[in-house]
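Because discrete structure vocabularies remain unfamiliar, we turn briefly to a single example record, giving the amino acid sequence and backbone structure tokens:
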Amino acid sequence: MLRFEDLRVRDQQALDRDFFNRRFRLIAESLGQISDEVGSISTDTDRLVALGLNRVNEVLGPLLAKLQIASEVGFLVAESATPVTVSLNLETTFQIKEEFRELFSPTPYLILQREAAGTINDYAAIELQSYNRTNGGLAGKIVFLNGNVGAASYSDWVISCAAGMSINVMQSLLDVTGSLGTLTDVAADAQAAITTINSLIAAGTVISVNGQTGTVILTMSDISGLVTALASKADSNHGHAIAQISDLQSTLDAIKDGGTY
């Protein structure tokens, strides 16, 4: 280390070549030493900066990635590539993709949909049973189906949180839709029956009268016993002798003799 005493000039000191060379050499050596130390500091600084950047990448990198996912899909949506053929009351497990696991916070009921285009009306409802954030295992029971979500095995699942009330609304809507479908079928059957009846009435035909079908024309002989019953009746214009009326003669004789009747 260069000291001031090494450069001090004393009284009556000869200012020759050795005087200046010795001092210039000390100055040059000190500057060289400072340069080496500056280079070492620069190297250490670069090493420290590189270490800090590595730590930032290790710690803040994953956090920034999670924040990016959260900003895009939120904390209530996750994706799964587990191949599953869903069906009503099926108990199964979906593995949540790693980038969603730590942020995803499932609710007691979840909506299961597909990423594929044109499947917006194909979905299912899941009743949550358990969720393992470490390995991404989400276990649940399928409690509602709509559309063709269970037509085959799919692996492009999007799982989102839902309230239990929304599941009840879905089920009620499905029940009402089914009832409307049944009523529509009944109305269609009734309309077809009315049309058939109207056509039969217009044609003047009946299903069955006295054992006959089609256009029925009845005569007296077609009704059993009618001709015989009518033959036993008295004519509309007729006369009777006294003898043909029971007890008439004896009653008249009694009246003539002062009797009663």
